[in-house]
Design goal:
single chain, 125 residues, 5 helices
């Protein structure tokens, strides 16, 4: 027999408290670094910097679409893997139905990955 799931506004207090603490920490950190941090601005500090290499040329040159494809695919597959954590935590309570649903999910993931490989989206040449 299942228990009734009547939630009251007081049940959301811990979530609101955590949100206020997180927002407060972020705002305090941003303001604090500007107040306490050094104010010295030099040409060297204000110049562009990328991976320890001095920037040469124009930053507005075309970039291969393959770079963006790999980045988008990484984000898509990474987000899908994140969905596996709640499933793993609740694995026992989901039973055989949850296992079958995860196999379907993993099968769809595999089909998507096979599609990407067949389209040669991950090849740089």
């Amino acid at each position: 027999m299942e228990a009734a799931t009547n939630s009251t506004p007081i049940d959301y207090l811990p979530i609101l408290l955590q949100m206020f603490v997180a927002i407060g920490f972020g705002v305090t950190t941003i303001i604090g670094t500007h107040l306490i941090g050094p104010k010295l601005r030099t040409d060297n500090k204000l110049s562009s910097f990328e991976s320890g290499i001095k920037v040469i040329g124009n930053a507005r040159q075309p970039v291969s679409i393959k770079y963006f494809m790999v980045a988008i695919l990484f984000v898509i597959f990474d987000v899908e893997v994140i969905f596996m954590y709640p499933w793993a935590v609740n694995f026992r309570s989901l039973g055989i139905e949850g296992l079958i649903e995860m196999f379907i999910f993993m099968g769809l993931l595999l089909l998507g990955f096979i599609y990407v490989l067949k389209k040669r989206a991950l090849e740089w040449d």
